[in-house]
Design goal:
It contains 4 helices and 4 strands; from the N terminus they run H-H-H-E-E-H-E-E. It has helices at residues 17-21, 37-41, 53-61, 92-104; strands at residues 72-78, 84-89, 108-113, 118-121. It has a 4-stranded antiparallel sheet, with helices on one face. It starts with 16 loop residues before the first helix and ends in a 7-residue tail after the last strand.
């Protein structure tokens, strides 16, 4: 029996386990990841540490954590349709391209979060 390259279970695409797992999934749709809100809701209050409101605001609302590999996160909200799209970038050049594209669209509110600040860009209309 010959050894398979790079520790793969199978080098044949038809018998590759990753291929078999994704075989019945429709293309273009994201996989649903269930959340555990019922488990958190049914947990007794003793499981959670009490925290003052001001401490919580300082800890989670006024601060944000981003991995070092991420340069920025961009959130674009279409005010006409209410749809929100979020983008995460590892390179500043790609983020600049996305911002240039979003700037040309109408009625889009853009929020940009970097390691240092959060910026809000709203569309402006001028009455002459």
């Amino acid at each position: 029996m010959q050894s398979l390259p790079h520790g793969l279970l199978s080098h044949c695409p038809k018998t590759n386990p990753i291929f078999l797992l994704t075989l019945n999934q429709p293309m273009g749709k994201k996989k649903y990841y269930p959340n555990n809100w019922e488990a958190i809701e049914s947990a007794p209050a003793e499981f959670f540490t009490a925290i003052e409101y001001e401490d919580f605001m300082d800890w989670r609302v006024l601060n944000w954590d981003m991995p070092d590999s991420v340069v920025c996160m961009i959130r674009a909200e279409n005010k006409d349709t209410g749809k929100i799209k979020e983008y995460v970038y590892q390179r500043e050049s790609d983020a600049r391209k996305r911002l240039t594209k979003l700037k040309s669209e109408n009625n889009i509110v853009v929020t940009i979060a970097t390691h240092d600040e959060i910026l809000l860009m709203t569309p402006m209309t001028f009455d002459y």
